[in-house]
């Protein structure tokens, strides 16, 4: 396809595709005798990767760096895109269902208690309860620095960690044993990556988990937790800190 046709089919401007070419993000596969850019299937697939990563919030320079890595195939990028959207949809659906229920009860002239209303506020404002405005700004900046693709990878790493912890717990392994402490080290590493090593943010994060309950916090991120698992993880963390 010539650049004009690709731009029209993809809903982009010719100028955007020219810019992608100029910065080395999306090169045409060939040119006509007159010098017009030509794009084939490989370039169209790469354009989809770019579009998905842009939707995840990554800047163009970061996208270019990611696309040099062999593991960032079209399928992998689409997986990241789907995972992000599914989490966003699930989160929005939870809030929608709560708000809709409150609205419908009001329409039906049912009695709505103050607790019902404050519960709705709680769901939509939970982060603001535990983080200062400065910490929220720092977390937003941290997210931009780390990149949305890495944030999605971390989600998968946490899920794998929970599964490994649960397997160890079910096998009866001592939380102070070296295999379980190795999991605690990985957990601590992921927390440091999230907080950027800021002790204030780490303290706010811990306060949120203690106040809200681990099950509730993890459910808000679309992840379940086996009964007793949080306590087991806490013992492993305490054993690791005792060694320090």
Please explain how this structure is put together.
By secondary structure, the protein is mostly helical. The chain is 74% helix and 2% strand. It is built from twelve helices and two strands; from the N terminus they run H-H-E-E-H-H-H-H-H-H-H-H-H-H. Strands 1-2 form a two-stranded antiparallel ribbon. The termini are far apart.
The shape, in one word, is globular
N-to-C span: 61 Å
| Total strands | 2
Q: What is the makeup of the main sheet?
A: 2 strands, antiparallel
Number of domains: 3
Helical amount: over 70%
Structural class: mainly alpha
Give the low-confidence spans: none
Strand composition percent = under 5%
Q: What is the radius of gyration computed over CA atoms, rounded to a whole number of angstroms?
A: 23 Å
Encode the helix/strand succession as letters. HHEEHHHHHHHHHH
Mean pLDDT, rounded to whole units? 82
Number of helices: 12
For the biggest β-sheet, the strand order reads 1-2
